[in-house]
């Protein structure tokens, strides 16, 4: 699932980007101000039993046209359901189904909660991960978008083998919410995940986080589980 949510999110297709201005080297220790902001947001998100978000995902890859897709993501602990124009990805925490609409094909895999590099990265997951020492992070600037004052926090992975050079999240401190997450690939690609609507504590049907092949007549099943 590597190129699904951050190419999906790893999902997706892509333009050459202007060269970035050099930025100061990442600090050896994370910024206490950034930690204070993140701790506050994390506690709020952890208070939600479930989350559903409407979002857009913009994908930019050097040499390819920029692509933007819209979708929804629902999350209940380790279970999630992502619905996009081209595919649906569902996981009940044990099994993950990737349904390709155009091909009417579903790929079934074992879910791997320990796969932090290639796994499904949601705002809630990112807020957990900064505590584990996977990133150094600091407040970079404050910007105004659509009348909202946003605080930007930049994350640098401590793993030099990470395929991403950095992540940047924009937080509306007044609302206590993440507005967008941007990932910068070492190959020059960029993925921007923007949240347009967030619905906490929504009740989902029992089968929302499973994939029933009976609902997809003629679907081709490729079982890749070990």
Offer a concise description of the structure:
The protein has 226 residues and is mainly β. It is built from two helices and 14 strands.
Q: Which oligomeric state applies?
A: single chain
Q: What is the overall pLDDT average?
A: 81
What is the assigned CATH homologous superfamily? Lipoprotein localisation LolA/LolB/LppX
Low-confidence stretches: 1-27, 116-120
Q: For this structure, what is the CATH class?
A: Mainly Beta
**N-to-C order of helices and strands:** EEHEEEEEEHEEEEEE
CATH topology: outer membrane lipoprotein receptor (LolB), chain A
Class from secondary-structure proportions = mainly beta
- Which second-level CATH architecture applies? Clam
Main pleated-sheet profile: 12 strands, mixed
The number of helical segments is: 2
Task: Characterise the protein shown here.
This protein has 226 residues and is mostly beta strands. The chain has a single domain (4-14, 30-216), classed as outer membrane lipoprotein receptor (LolB), chain A, CATH 2.50.20.10. 10% of the residues lie in helices and 45% in strands. The chain is built from 2 helices and 14 strands. The chain has helices at residues 32-46, 123-129; strands spanning 4-5, 10-11, 51-60, 67-76, 79-84, 87-91, 95-100, 105-110, 135-145, 148-157, 164-172, 177-185, 190-200, 220-223. The strands form 2 sheets. It has a 12-stranded mixed beta sheet, covered by helices on one side. It has a two-stranded antiparallel sheet with strand order 1-2. Strand 7 (95-100) and strand 8 form a beta hairpin. The longest helix has 15 residues, at 32-46. It is globular and about 55 Å long. Residues 1-27 and 116-120 have low confidence and may be disordered.
